[in-house]
Design brief:
CATH superfamily of the largest domain: P-loop containing nucleotide triphosphate hydrolases
Distance between the termini: 28 Å
Structural class: alpha/beta
Strand content: 15-25%
CATH topology of the largest domain: Rossmann fold
CATH architecture of the largest domain: 3-Layer(aba) Sandwich
Largest sheet: 6 strands, mixed
Helix content: 25-40%
Oligomer: single chain
Strand order of the largest sheet: 6-7-8-3-9-10
Number of domains: 2
Length: 267
């Protein structure tokens, strides 16, 4: 697995005839196999930072390194999951899962067998030949996970992947991610507005302020692993959630977090 090193990254966008500074001098390192969540008020630049790590957006200043190699664009070492699963509706679950190897020209005789194995791991055995419209919301997200993992990314970047799900499905997907991470131990950077989700999943939570976006505090989450959702009932969990929420509330700028599932700002 690979680590991520963000060094003094700044980014501005033109908006309404003016220049808006989205990120200012942000630095953070995520170790190999570590799970780090980015939280903060809407507009603090969490999504922009994630897209810069993914290579989809270029920083104005600073650098992003993956195992000391500079990020210059998207790559198969980084998989990205969005709030919507973004499956191709005209492809079956299996063909969606196989899309990456086919696009890269890395399809081999064993690729299909590996895709079927991966679909079994994510709980979609028996649904290989279904189309996305035939799946529930949680199943579509599992298919998106399978597609992302099919290319063996060393780093998984997730932008509010469960924000559009109902509460019960979201809880199930959080537990699914915990179990999958325990199995594979890939490096994860998660953007979320849900403080409880960040504490449940993460090794560390990075709190960002806005106007412009800056990293103001990194909070370790020393809850034991492997974790299940039951840990959210513990006193330690409640104390950590309170500490993260207070850090977000004290960070300057932007609109306050109101809970899980709210629409995020485009930055």
């Amino acid at each position: 697995m690979a680590g991520v090193h963000v060094r003094n990254v700044s980014k501005s966008f033109a908006h309404g005839g003016s220049i808006v500074e989205i990120l200012r001098n942000v630095s953070i390192s995520v170790g190999e196999g570590e799970f780090v969540s980015l939280v903060g008020r809407s507009g603090c630049g969490k999504t922009t930072l994630l897209r810069i790590i993914g290579g989809f957006v270029h920083a104005d200043a600073g650098s992003v390194l993956v195992d000391e190699a500079p990020v210059r664009g998207p790559g198969s070492d980084r998989g990205m999951l969005f709030q919507q699963p973004m499956l191709f509706p005209w492809l079956t679950v299996l063909d969606n899962t196989l899309f990456g190897p086919r696009a890269e020209g890395s399809f081999t005789p064993g690729t299909r067998a590996r895709a079927l194995e991966l679909l079994g791991i994510v709980g979609l055995a028996g649904f290989e030949f279904h189309y996305p419209k035939q799946l529930s919301g949680g199943m579509m997200h599992r298919a998106a996970f399978a597609r992302a993992m099919m290319v063996d990314p060393e780093i998984l970047l997730m932008d509010e992947p469960f924000g559009a799900l109902d509460a019960l499905t979201r809880t199930g997907m959080q537990q699914f991610l915990l179990d999958l991470w325990e199995r594979r131990r890939f490096t994860v950077v998660l953007v979320t507005h849900d403080v409880e989700e960040a504490v449940l999943l993460s090794d560390r939570v990075a709190v960002m302020a806005s106007q412009p976006g800056e990293l103001v505090e990194t909070i370790p989450i020393p809850l034991p692993r492997p974790r299940t959702y039951e840990v959210s009932e513990s006193t330690d969990f409640v104390d950590l959630k309170r500490r993260v929420r207070q850090a977000v509330e004290h960070a300057r700028g932007g609109a306050a977090i109101v809970g899980a599932g709210r629409a995020a700002a485009p930055y």
